[in-house]
Amino acid sequence: MKNLPRFFTFASPSRFYRAAGWAIPWIYAVAVLVSLAGLYLGFFVAPVDATQGNSYRIIFIHVPAAWMSMVLYLVMAFWAAIGWAFNARLASMVARSLAPTGAAFTFLALWTGAFWGKPTWGAWWVWDARLTSELILLFLYLGYMALVEAIDDTRRADQAGALLAVIGAVNVPIIYFSVRWWNTLHQGATISMTAAPKMANTMLLSMLLMTIAFWAYAFAVVFMRTRALVLERERDNEWVRALGANNGSAA
To answer: Nearest-CA neighbor of 190 among 207, 178, 171, 165?
Structure first.
């Protein structure tokens, strides 16, 4: 119990604002450097696929984006639920900040999937189980953002958004297991926790590097967006006014 105050240190909007401001440049640097390494390995070092040729290389963007779209939704739902259950202001702000980034990754996954599907399946889009459930995920992100912006009362908006986010989380396992539950055109999992990878080590390394880069990017932009929300919601607090005064005097 003695460690609880230390654990919740950054639950304070003011402490989070300062810590995130310090971390953002470093996280962006990680995102840029790791993404450059991952793209170089994926597009210039990884071997040509025996069946799909060079068109498969979209996997190094498509798969990490698809992973991020699902994981970020679960993270968003988690923080939205924490904000709703414990009336934690910062948790609700983090949930709101996650939604645009998750929607962007979902759109990227769908877009790159279309580019990959054309040479593989001969069609830009099919109403495949995985593609359809991923499209529903995009609608859930957009619905969450529209709902919280449509309600003027911030607390009621956070609660309504949390309810939608938690209910929508049911769609994530549907996306993941769709290729097992139904006969789909979409290929099965290339990487599994219970089996050896079905790709060359260079391919695997590139995909993992791009996943790390996407995570770093997500952290950076979510921290930036949360800092903006903190300033907006906490503008009447003394520390925000003092921050504004300091910035004004520095200018």
So the answer is: 207
CA dist 35 and 218 (Å) reads: 13
Does residue 14 belong to any structural domain of this protein?
no
CA torsion, points 70, 221, 160, 166, in degrees to nearest 10? 20
Please check whether residue 28 lies inside any domain of the structure. Answer: no
How many domains does the chain fold into? 1
pTM of the predicted model over 0.70? yes
- Tens of pLDDT along the chain (251 residues) come to 444 444 454 478 888 999 999 999 999 999 999 999 999 999 999 988 877 778 788 999 999 999 999 999 999 999 999 999 999 999 999 999 999 999 999 999 999 988 887 777 777 778 888 889 999 999 999 999 999 999 999 999 999 999 999 999 999 999 888 767 656 655 555 655 455 556 778 889 999 999 999 999 999 999 999 999 999 888 767 766 666 656 654 44
Q: Which domain holds residue 169?
A: 34-47+54-235
